[in-house]
Specification:
The complex is a heterodimer of chains A (about 230) and B (about 450).
Chain A lengths: L2 E3 L5 H10 L8 E5 L16 E5 L14 E4 L15 E4 L15 E4 L12 E7 L13 E6 L15 E4 L10 E4 L3 H13 L12 E5 L15
Parallel strand pairs in A: 1-2, 2-3, 3-4, 4-5, 5-6, 6-7, 7-8, 8-9
Antiparallel strand pairs in A: 9-11, 10-11
Chain B lengths: L18 H13 L4 E4 L11 E3 L20 E3 L8 E3 L3 E3 L9 H13 L3 E3 L7 H6 L2 E6 L8 H6 L2 E5 L10 E3 L6 H7 L7 E3 L8 H15 L6 E6 L3 H10 L4 E5 L5 E5 H6 L4 H14 L7 E5 L5 H9 L4 E4 L1 H7 L7 H6 L24 H4 L4 H25 L13 E3 L2 H7 L16
Parallel strand pairs in B: 5-15, 6-7, 7-8, 8-11, 11-12, 12-14, 14-15
Antiparallel strand pairs in B: 1-13, 2-16, 3-4, 9-10
Classes of the chains: A alpha/beta (about 230), B alpha/beta (about 450).
């Protein structure tokens, strides 16, 4: 298992070595010690690796991830897993703003809380936050699922497109064109799948969640809706 | 009394409430919505036409037109990138999206640019195989919406342009109306077909220059510090914006004046927000000089470049290169008088057509209608663009040689004078026939 120590080795060397790995590499499990909040750790990965970051990560950790599993043992800064395409990013602590921003695919799991704009403009990623999320989360969210076991802040799902949001706790307020929608069997099944993938056991029931999504009233500009824009 | 012989006052239009203003009032009253259109500012503003070159004479020695070399090459991205872009001519193709433009038009832009050894640029909505395949040097725009944003495409690109704003609408986002959302466009943007697609005005995961610096670091890490990183700003406060872009780690700053085009935005935005290209260049250059980064961070200027004189003037004022968008579309076939009958059916006339947002372009350029798009032959249109780019280059060389310069980059503000006080003040060159630079010299 390759071990990297950012106290003595550079992030540039780490990322370069991870990028240089061929898709069929045997060096598939990496550890990164002493991350000390460095930015852009393990970003742009494009191979089925597992990278364990043994501490706190700064901005854009695992940004644009493809295929890899990136685990942050501590907290993550702004934009963790931003624009990830596939793979898994798992933050064991809290995440700062814009977690999973514009991400197109894969699974982002945050064991703690996520700050404002979690899942902003998400485009297909699945995000599971075991704590609460901040205001303006899922703003202009296009596709994918956002699951929140705790509470959601103001203006949840403002100007949302086709993303599905599941919240177990309280929602402080909904944003423009975001409404509560019925939980049908297919949604419950989908939610169960997401909870299982995030390691949430049967002690958390899908019946405890409410579903939110787009009212689709702002999909085509109309002057009568001007006040909502 | 017979009044027929009494002289009458002629009907007189108000200069303030002129026919165009009244027509717009009536249109607004009938529809309740602002006017949306494509293109850049149409109002007359101080521009390159207000400058003249001082050719060589007794005190300066010219170069021979067809014999002595006047080089045109430029390298962009020399500050940090391991692989800077080397271009044969300093005229690049600006970012324009697949979605606003047809796939054929994007391909034609790539073909034309490649023939003459320059770069083209993607736009909102991501990279198409057509343009990557036909573009020797392709700049990948990194936009707030991140539509179609794919790290594989970033890795395939030759440079990355972080778009903060554009001259037509600095501070504004965009809207691609539903009628232009074909299946392919919808799929690339991960949205249902037929809905209006809003492009955000701010990036979703950074705010301000300190964050931008970290974002640029991430992009460099992802691309292993190989690719030049451009930062594009709409011209508003060019001194500070350029300084902050440099501070954030840009290799290249792209500065777009208010005459620069857009696929679609509000008319009031296009005409009333931002400053003319002419007014933006000198403060931008000053910022680079004050930071000791002039010619180290390259400056690309766009917005209203039409001919080789404009190219030469922008470079004399300090640009390392220029970029064209609207003019390139005209070279492809946009607003061609040969299509006048069809423009008339759309309620306009060749030369004035700007409803690019509607997707009805008879030239097959700003459309996603497959029948209309088919009209544009990307090979022939690419050839026209290459011809036009060659003419721009030859014209700029003609002027540079007349000023005694063996490289376009040797053009300098001292080669220029202004025809108007406004242009003299903005370009910081003397009013013709005087040594007066308003705001700088003399009283």
């Amino acid at each position: 298992m390759p071990a990297f120590d950012l106290a003595t080795q550079s992030k540039r060397d780490l990322n370069q070595r991870l990028h240089n790995l061929p898709a069929d590499t045997n060096e598939t499990h990496w550890t990164v010690a002493n991350p000390a909040g460095e930015h852009a750790i393990a970003c742009g990965l494009d191979a089925p690796l597992t990278v364990e970051i043994q501490g706190h990560a700064g901005y854009y950790c695992a940004g644009m991830n493809k295929l890899a599993t990136v685990i942050v043992e501590g907290n993550a800064g702004v934009g963790v897993g931003e624009n990830m395409m596939s793979g898994t990013v798992h933050v064991k602590g809290d995440a700062s703003q814009s977690a999973g921003a514009t991400a197109h695919g894969g699974l982002l799991v945050i064991d703690g809380n996520a700050s404002a704009r979690c899942g902003i403009s998400m485009k297909g990623v699945d995000i599971v936050v075991k704590g609460s999320i901040g205001p303006m989360s899922a703003f202009m969210a296009q596709s994918g699922n956002l699951v929140v076991l705790g509470d959601a802040g103001d203006a949840l799902g403002d100007s949302i497109y086709e993303t599905r949001i599941y919240v177990r706790g309280a929602v402080k307020s909904l944003g423009a064109d975001c409404i509560e929608k019925p939980m049908e069997a297919k949604h419950k099944a989908d939610l169960r799948r997401l909870l299982d993938a995030a390691g949430v056991g049967p002690e958390v029931s899908v019946d405890e969640f409410k579903r939110y999504g787009s009212a689709r009233q702002l999909y085509n500009f109309h002057v009568d809706n001007a006040a909502a824009y | 009394m017979d009044t027929s012989s009494i002289p009458q006052t002629l009907p007189r239009f108000s200069a303030t409430l002129d026919p165009a203003s009244m027509a717009e009032i009536r249109r607004a009253a009938a529809t309740g919505i602002y006017d949306i259109r494509g293109g850049g500012a149409k109002r007359k503003v101080p521009h390159f036409d207000d400058l003249l070159f001082l050719g060589a004479s007794v005190s300066r020695y010219p170069l021979e037109g067809y014999r002595e070399k006047c080089a045109t090459d430029v390298t962009l991205g020399t500050r940090f990138a391991k692989k800077p872009i080397k271009l044969d001519i300093p005229i690049t193709i600006a970012g324009m999206s697949f979605g606003s433009l047809s796939a054929q038009a994007k391909e034609a832009l790539g073909r034309g640019a490649s023939i003459v050894g320059t770069s083209t640029t993607t736009g909102d909505g991501g990279m198409t195989p057509e343009e990557r395949g036909q573009s020797k040097a392709l700049v990948y725009q990194y936009l707030p919406s991140r539509y179609g944003m794919n790290p594989d495409d970033i890795r395939k690109a030759d440079a990355i342009e972080v778009v903060i704003g554009q001259g037509a609408k600095p501070g504004g986002g965009g809207m691609l109306l539903g009628q232009k959302i074909s299946d392919r466009v919808a799929e690339m943007r991960t949205l249902p077909k037929g809905i209006d697609q809003r492009s955000a005005c701010r990036h979703p995961d950074w705010t301000g220059p300190d964050d931008l610096e970290i974002k640029i670091e991430e992009l460099r890490e992802i691309t292993d510090w190989e690719k030049p990183i451009y930062v594009k700003v709409g011209a508003t406060r060019p001194y500070y914006d350029v300084a902050l872009a440099v501070k954030s780690g840009a290799d290249v700053v792209v500065l777009d004046g208010m005459q620069g085009g857009t696929a679609a935005t509000q008319e009031v935005f296009i005409e009333h927000v931002g400053i003319p290209t002419l007014a933006a260049i000198r403060p931008a250059v000053q910022a680079l000089q004050d930071l000791g980064m002039y010619r180290k961070v390259q400056l690309v200027v766009s917005g209203g470049i039409r001919n080789g004189a404009d190219v030469a003037k922008a470079m004399a004022l300090g640009a390392d290169a220029v970029s064209i968008g609207s003019a390139a579309l005209v070279a492809l076939g946009d607003n061609d008088p040969a299509l006048e009958e069809e423009y008339q059916k759309l309620g306009t006339t060749a030369g004035a057509y700007d409803d690019w947002q509607l997707g009805l372009d008879p030239a097959g350029i700003s459309t996603q209608d497959p029948e209309l798009a088919k009209r544009l032959d990307p090979v022939a249109a690419g050839r026209r663009l290459a011809n036009y780019l060659s003419v721009l280059t030859l014209e700029a060389q003609t002027i540079a040689r007349a000023c005694g310069k063996s490289h376009l980059h040797n053009l300098e503000p001292e080669d220029l004078v202004a025809l108007t006080i406004e242009a003299a003040a903005m370009a910081k060159v003397p009013l013709a026939g005087t040594d007066w630079i308003p705001g700088l010299s003399g009283m």
